[in-house]
Amino acid sequence: MKNKPAILGWSICDDCDPYNDPSTVQSYQDAVRAIDSNHITYGAGAHYTYEPGYNVGTYVNTLDSMGWEMYPIGTSILMNTVYAAMKDTADAFRAAGKPEVEIWFQGGLTF
């Protein structure tokens, strides 16, 4: 699969922050990199752990890209919270010198 052009990357962490500590995510990253260094790795933060100013820094060094699984339609999550989470995450990855990757990810297989 690593040479398939349709593969954007590998989702290695779903709801990273409450369920997978950074050392666990690092072990997933190392396992993926040993097999495929041509594609990005992605992780998603859980919507209920984000607060403005949330530090995604613990995942910056273990993931290539991170997003948030927030469901603002029909819930109490406000759109400005979604935007703040996206901005804080992009700022943290940019500050770490990581390329900016814009992804809206839904679904997939996580190991």
| First-last Cα distance | 16 Å
Structural class comes to alpha/beta
Share of residues in strands = 15-25%
Instruction: Kindly state the percentage of residues in helix.
Output: 25-40%
Unreliable sequence segments:
105-111
Main sheet attributes: strand count, strand direction, barrel closure: 3 strands, parallel
Strands side by side in the biggest sheet: 1-2-3
Q: Supply Rg.
A: 14 Å
Assembly type: single chain
Mean pLDDT: 77
Query: How many strands appear in the DSSP assignment?
Result: 3
Order of helices and strands: EHHEHEH
Number of helices: 4
Taken from the alpha-carbon principal axes, the silhouette is: globular
Number of domains: 1
Short description:
By secondary structure, the chain is of the alpha/beta class.
Task: Give a structural overview.
- This protein is an alpha/beta fold and 111 residues long.
- The chain has one domain.
- Helices cover 35% and strands 15% of the residues.
- The protein contains 4 helices and 3 strands; from the N terminus they run βααβαβα.
- The chain has helices at residues 16-19, 22-35, 57-60, 79-95; strands at residues 9-13, 40-46, 65-69.
- A 3-stranded parallel sheet has the order 1-2-3.
- The longest helix is centred in the last third of the chain and has 17 residues, at 79-95.
- The radius of gyration is 14 Å and the shape is globular.
- The model is unreliable at 105-111 (pLDDT under 50).
How is this fold's topology laid out?
Elements: E1 9-13, H1 16-19, H2 22-35, E2 40-46, H3 57-60, E3 65-69, H4 79-95
Parallel strand pairs: 1-2, 2-3
InterPro entries: GH
